[in-house]
Description:
Layout: H1 2-11, H2 23-83, E1 105-108, E2 118-121, E3 130-134, E4 139-142, E5 154-163, E6 173-184, E7 189-200
Amino acid sequence: MRKILVKLFLKLKLPKRENGFTLIEALIAITVLTIGVIGPMAAATRGITEGIFSGNRLTASALAQEAMELTSAVVENNLWSIQNGYLSESDWLADFSECDGIKACNVSFPEGSSNEISVDNCGGDSANCQLVWDESSFRYVVDSSVPAGSPGVYTRRVNVQPIDYDTDGTTDAAKVTVIVGWYNRATADEQSIQIIRYLYRRA
């Protein structure tokens, strides 16, 4: 009887195992693929974010240096005017009377055909010192109409603090501080850079 059962079992046609993946194999393959893709994607995202931040910081540095050079140019022009009798010695910082203490100004290139460097008080509204790229002139210009925090918008503040070293009532030097700020959308916070230079009144 046993031999008969064995023969019958061997004659049965069992279904053949079809080629393919089991559920566990599929899950393992998906996991490995996900790990392999997420790594490069995270690195690429971080690289793009750092690239944007570096670009913004480079632009802010250039804008800060520009304001510092323009401020120095105004002072040098005043000192030349003093030497040639066009201004009194006490007026070498006259253009920056609204830029000292807690007040700040924006120093920018002349508009249109004017050769005079513009020195404007920012007042209490930071938009008055807001810089936006102008396609027509290929430079950053003051524009308070663009909402703060928009991409490519910077604020630039120039503070000129008179210094009287010998306390004789005359200004011997000036501490110039330029602060350029921008909104970093990648990290959702405000960023800024600051440069300082001392300018001296020549005897």
